[in-house]
Write a structure and sequence with these properties.
Number of strands: 10
Number of helices: 1
CATH superfamily: Calycin beta-barrel core domain
Largest sheet: 10 strands, antiparallel, barrel
CATH topology: Lipocalin
Radius of gyration: 23 Å
Shape: globular
Distance between the termini: 79 Å
CATH class: Mainly Beta
Strand order of the largest sheet: 1-2-3-4-5-6-7-8-9-10
Number of domains: 1
Length: about 190
């Protein structure tokens, strides 16, 4: 009869230890594939060009930082060509329990998106723009990253005005940049 209370006491005393050892989920699991250097070809309303992107975890993994550079050669929309950059930060909003994606463009435009878990899946990550109170009309923006392989993804940016159907504004196919092979001396 004393074995049962002793067994229960042992199980109760080890329960917190078992809970403490449970692995914590990776907050970056949905977007960890992006970490690294990327090069792509963009086809957009502005024209065709090339894009380089880098993603890296910063500040002890609190943020995923993106840096992008767009190069458009001379073409009808840009007779002299155009180069533009932006920086973005992905962060976990613990209060709302969602991932945020904030873009900062060199022309002072900003975008704030949230991860749409209901539209995302193992091979697709979808971010939707948070509503803007400063916009004269109601614009909806959606940015989707479709995973093609561990070394390739497609970025699709779509816009819709006043509840109309989304229209693709740009599509960029990215390939992971492989590290340069070290030069060996003979």
């Amino acid at each position: 009869m004393t074995k049962i209370p002793l067994t229960v006491a042992c199980l109760i005393s080890f329960a917190p230890l078992a809970q403490a050892q449970a692995p914590t989920p990776d907050p970056w699991a949905d977007v960890r594939f992006l970490v690294g250097e990327w090069r792509g070809s963009i086809n957009s309303e502005e024209g065709k060009g090339t894009v380089t992107k880098s993603f890296r975890l910063i500040l002890s993994g609190m943020f995923l930082q993106e840096k992008s550079r767009f190069d458009f050669p001379p073409q009808p929309n840009f007779p002299n060509g155009m180069v533009t950059t932006h920086a973005s930060f992905l962060a976990q909003d613990r209060t709302r329990k969602l991932m945020l994606y904030r873009q900062h463009h060199e022309d002072y435009r900003k975008g704030s998106y949230f991860l749409a878990k209901d539209k995302s899946g193992p091979a697709k990550v979808v971010f939707e723009a948070e509503p803007s109170m400063n916009a004269p009309t109601v614009w909806s923006v959606r940015e989707t990253w479709e995973v093609v392989s561990p070394n390739a993804f497609v970025e699709i940016i779509e816009v819709a005005q006043d509840g109309k159907t989304f229209v693709v504004q740009s599509r960029t196919a990215f390939q992971r940049r492989q590290p340069e092979a070290p030069v060996t001396k003979k």
